[in-house]
């Protein structure tokens, strides 16, 4: 994940409280980068967004391919369901502090091909923790861990 931009955020009277019934939309710039001699063809991706262990949003990415040594970039829209977010304990205190910390889980199933000889099915799983600055509507900190299952 390279960058996240809040594209839609409706607040009550420009306050820190999201407008009831509205959703928050984020546009994420995501890269799939291959450093070695293998290419990676992946199918549809799913990312689930959590706030204090409660599912508050989801995003779906299109299939694609990262060729050996290349970087594939794409934009994915994430929709956060504010009704789920506002019913979560601590949301008012977190928004009042100006920070919103969320986590995400992405699952990317695909197939690795090396030198057109070796073909293997893999699943890339990524867990990220994201700290969003509410006033600037930008990510201030991001930590991700990935795991590849062969």
Nutshell version of this structure?
The protein is 8% helix and 63% strand. With 150 residues, the protein is mostly beta strands. It has a single domain, classed as Immunoglobulin-like.
Supply database-style keywords:
150 residues; Immunoglobulin-like; ten-stranded antiparallel sheet; 63% strand; LEA_2
What does the model show?
This protein has helices spanning about 80-85, 90-95, and strands at about 5-10, 25-35, 40, 45-50, 55-60, 65, 70-80, 100-115, 120-135, 140-150. It is mainly beta and about 150 residues long. The chain contains two helices and ten strands; from the N terminus they run βββββββααβββ. The mean pLDDT is about 80. Strands 1, 2, 3, 4, 5, 6, 7, 8, 9 and 10 form a ten-stranded antiparallel sheet that branches. It has a single domain (about 5-150), classed as Sandwich (Immunoglobulin-like), CATH 2.60.40. The chain is elongated and about 55 Å long.
Secondary-structure map with pairings?
Elements: E1 3-8, E2 23-33, E3 38-42, E4 45-51, E5 54-61, E6 64-66, E7 71-81, H1 82-86, H2 91-97, E8 99-114, E9 118-133, E10 138-149
Antiparallel strand pairs: 1-2, 2-7, 3-6, 3-8, 4-5, 4-8, 5-7, 8-9, 9-10
